[in-house]
Amino acid sequence: KAAPMAPDSPDPAPEFDTSQPTIARVYDALLGGKDNFAADREGAATYLKYVPDAGRCAIENREALIKGVQYLVRTAGIDQFLDIGSGLPTQKNTHQAAQEINPDAKVVYVDKDPIVLAHGRALLATNNSTIVVTADLSKPQEILDNKEITTHLDFTRPIALMIVGIHMHFHDDEQPDEWVRTIMDQLVPGSYLFITDFVDTGEPLQKAMEQAGLESLGNGWIRTPERITEHFLGLPLVPPGLDFLARWFPEDPDGDVPEVEDLQPYQRILMAGIAKKG
Ligand code: SAM
Fold first, then answer.
1. CATH topology of domain 23-276
2. Residue minimizing CA distance to atom 6 of ligand 1
3. What's the gap in Å between 115 CA and the centre of ligand 1?
4. For 11-113, where are the alpha helices, taking DSSP H only?
5. How big is the chain by its Cα radius of gyration, in Å?
6. How far is the CA of 110 from the centre of ligand 1 (A)?
7. Secondary structure element (H or E) that encloses residue 207, with its range
8. Ligand 1 atom 13: residue of nearest CA
9. pLDDT digits over 154-177, tens only?
10. With a cut of 0.95, is the ipTM above it?
């Protein structure tokens, strides 16, 4: 077990089981971060064995996250974010991308891995507009009933729900769409749903990514674009719709978009989309 990490926090710091990899820490290792342990670095090595450019996939996913947040603040006028499966803090995070454009934007980070809370507290010690909560997407009602969250965000105004890079961890049998629907049902019209996910368009490297996840973490499934579209619960997608990360730019959907054939194989592993609740 690792030593507790938030020395000046009012709550007892959680203990971490460092003998098993967690996706938050494996992802951190792939992004070149330092908040990971030997088992996580082994997990990252498994990813790199199957997908040598897995680190670049992770970086592209972070770039897409920032593009999506910038669109939501600048173009859609959103100033409240519920970022579930937020991961460990890295170079630029949701609150930084949002508050660069609107300093009053409020962000709630939710992650089931308590290490995210410990590290988030340190990062956010001086940021009153952002909080971190440990909670599980599979218990959506607990998220909706969480007083810290309902005090920080105003549920009578639009909120962007972010499910970025986390759907792949759930098997369809677990009914992740129902969890997301429970939350979206409580958001007012004008709210948004932002998703990135592993895709299956029949390419070997996509299957290799799935294999790496199953071997290192026991999850990390890929899905067809049609199935990912269902994650948006029938809500209309904003242009350009669902697309590979490198082609996806909601602020300039008609811009200089590379052809799919010109993308590197590693650039065809994740897709992104944003839907609006009317
Ligand atoms: N959203 C960030 C991004 O895209 O850069 C981080 C993605 S990381 C691959 C997935 C995160 O989802 C991890 O931090 C993991 O702990 C979290 N996660 C996985 N299952 C979860 C659940 N059921 N509830 C909340 N968080 C979860």
1. Rossmann fold (3.40.50)
2. 87
3. 12
4. 23-30, 38-50, 54-70, 94-101
5. 18
6. 8
7. helix 204-216
8. 24
9. 999 999 999 999 999 999 999 999
10. yes
